[in-house]
Each structure stands twice: as C-alpha cells, then as structure tokens.
Specification:
Largest sheet: none
Structural class: mainly alpha
Low-confidence stretches: none
Shape: globular
Number of domains: 1
Length: about 350
C-alpha cells in the first residue's frame, strides 16, 4: 500500500512538472506573432546561417573538450569517446528535473565508455560537475550584478536564488570531493549496524567496507584533478566557448536578423548565462519551458520586445541544448550495461 502511495505521488509530481512546462511554452507562444517570427527566421541570409551553424558546432566540440581535459590525467580518451560521454550525460540531464541531478549518472556512463574503475569515474564526474557549477555561478553572478536595477524584484530573486545554488553546489562538491574521509565515521557506524542483520548482515557490511576503501582512492584522484591547473584552464576555456561565446554569438546574429540592436553587446552572453541559470531549479525536466520563459522575462526587462526574444531564445536552446540532447540518445542505446555497475 505504501509503495503504491509513493508511486502515485511520483506520477503526480511528474505530471505537475510536465504541466508547468506545457503552460510555460503556451505562455511563450502567446507572446509572439508566430507567422512574423517564422518569416524573420526564414529570411536569414546564407552568411548568418553559416555562422550560426559554425559557432554551434564549435560550442559542441568545446563541450566535448571539457570532458576530455578532465579525464586526461586519469586516462587518455579520444574526442569521439569524450563526445559520446558529453552527449549521453546531456541526454540524461534533459530527462531529470535538475541539471546537476543528471550528473549522478555520469560515473556509470564514464565507466561504460572508458572502462575505468568506478572510483576514478566518480572522481572525474565529480570534478567536472564541481567546476561546471562554480564557473556557472560566478559568471551568472556577474550577470545578476550587471542587470541589477533593470530587472523586476521577483525576477532578481529567482535568478539570484539559482545563481546562489550553483555557487553553493560547486563549492560543496569540490570541498566534499577532496575530503571524502569525513564519511569514514558514518560508514563505520553503518557497518556495525548492518553487520547485526541476520544471514545477510556480514556480506552487506563487507560491501560497505569496500565502499569505505573506495572513498580513499576516489578522494585521491579527485584531489589530483581538482588541484591540476591544466584541468581548470582547459575546462574553463571549453566551458566559456560552450556556455558564453556560442550562445552569445547565436543570439547576437538572431537579434540582427530581426533588426534589433542590443547594448552593451559585451554583456549579452553574461545575461544569457544568468537567464538560463534556472535550469538548476527542479521545476520541470531539464528546466524545459521554465528556462525559456525566464530568459524571455529577463530580456524583455532589458528592453528586447517579447515577440523578438521568444523565437530567438527557442532557437538558441534548440542549438545549444535540445539538439545535442537528441544526439545523445543514440550513444545512450549502446551503453554497456554490464560495465555500469560499481563492482
């Protein structure tokens, strides 16, 4: 009965989140003249279209590079392998409520794609997540500061909260990852309690002891990666191209196609990072709908007409998030499930 109740609650929560996403998209569509928007997008010249695709491809390979540079100190991997990992993790991110929650599957994806030990895979994915969150929080904070006084108070609260969560998540992951020995006392108590369970207790306790020894190895790898300047510099470069440069250029080109100027243009990429920060809030799967609605509200407050920014944000999200997520479906079907266990 309890299990049924939990199952029904889960279905209800999922249905509510999907409803929020649908409502957000309905609101977005209601803000624009669809025919005019399609006409403006269809009127793009070959030059801007080529630039749009070029910068999107560059952003995609930069995303691959963030994984390659993080994995490299542990194990050499090809661009193709790093790309498969990046695409699969992005695919999973769109299925779960929060972008960081999707990272929980990353160690298993890494293990399947590279064959590395689970302890190393957990360390690599943890460092990747921690640096991602910290960089996102810092850049988004600059965007919040730059837009202060231009955004409505409620919107400042939303983007400020999500920015703060990114910063907190980054600091927490990096701090805990380098000090996993803090978990040892808890695991020791858990081992003693589990060992008293009849028949299966000793076997379960042995698995916990294995986990405890694994945390030492994982923490050592984590510390090596988290203190490696090459990892930080390489990751930051790839991250900047993926999440700052590529979206900024895409939106700039699309604004120009609508005949709308944005000043100062140098702040455009920072505002985009801030506007998209709500993907961390577990409101809808992958932040779908809510992210686009929030970005629209931010840019409308900054002076861009809603009928212009809505189709632009949708196109940018398709190129930057949804298309790579769809691309991640195929490599995800080829995962080695046997290799995805902790053993």
């Amino acid at each position: 009965m309890a299990r049924t109740s939990l199952s029904l609650r889960g279905v209800a929560v999922t249905a509510a989140k999907v409803a929020i996403a649908v409502a957000a998209f309905a609101w977005l569509v209601g803000q624009i003249d669809v025919e005019r928007a399609l006409g403006a997008l269809g009127g793009l010249q070959p030059g801007p279209i080529a630039a749009l695709f070029a910068v999107s491809i560059a952003g995609l390979f930069a995303r691959f590079y963030t994984w390659q540079v993080t994995i490299a100190p542990v194990q050499r991997v090809s661009v193709r392998t790093a790309g498969s990992i990046a695409l699969i993790v992005n695919f999973v991110n769109q299925l779960l409520p929060s972008r960081l929650s999707g990272r929980l599957a990353a160690p298993f994806v890494l293990r399947s794609q590279t064959g590395m030990a689970y302890t190393d895979a957990a360390a690599v994915s943890g460092v990747h997540t921690g640096i991602y969150a910290l960089l996102y929080g810092l850049v988004s904070l600059v965007g919040v500061a730059a837009s202060y006084g231009q955004l409505p108070f409620g919107l400042v609260v939303v983007v400020g909260l999500s920015t703060g969560l990114y910063l907190a998540a980054g600091v927490f992951v990096l701090a805990v990852g380098t000090n996993l020995q803090f978990l040892d006392p808890l695991l020791a108590v858990l081992t003693r309690v589990v060992a008293r369970v009849p028949r299966v207790g000793e076997r379960a306790a042995e698995r916990i002891r294995d986990l405890s020894s694994g945390t030492d190895a994982s923490a050592a790898t984590f510390r090596d990666l988290a203190t490696n300047p090459r990892v930080w510099l390489g990751y930051a470069a790839g991250w900047a191209v993926t999440l700052v440069l590529a979206p900024g250029v895409r939106v700039f080109l699309l604004l120009a196609s609508f005949g709308v100027a944005f000043e100062p243009v140098v702040l455009l990429p920072l505002y985009l990072v801030t506007a998209y920060s709500v993907t961390l809030l577990p409101l809808t799967p992958g932040g779908i709908g809510v992210t686009e609605a929030t970005a629209t509200a931010v840019f409308v407050a900054l002076g861009v007409p809603a009928e212009v920014i809505v189709p632009i944000v949708l196109v940018d999200r398709v190129f930057g998030i949804y298309l790579p997520a769809v691309m991640g479906w195929y490599p995800s079907t080829r995962l080695d499930l046997a290799a995805m266990s902790v053993d």
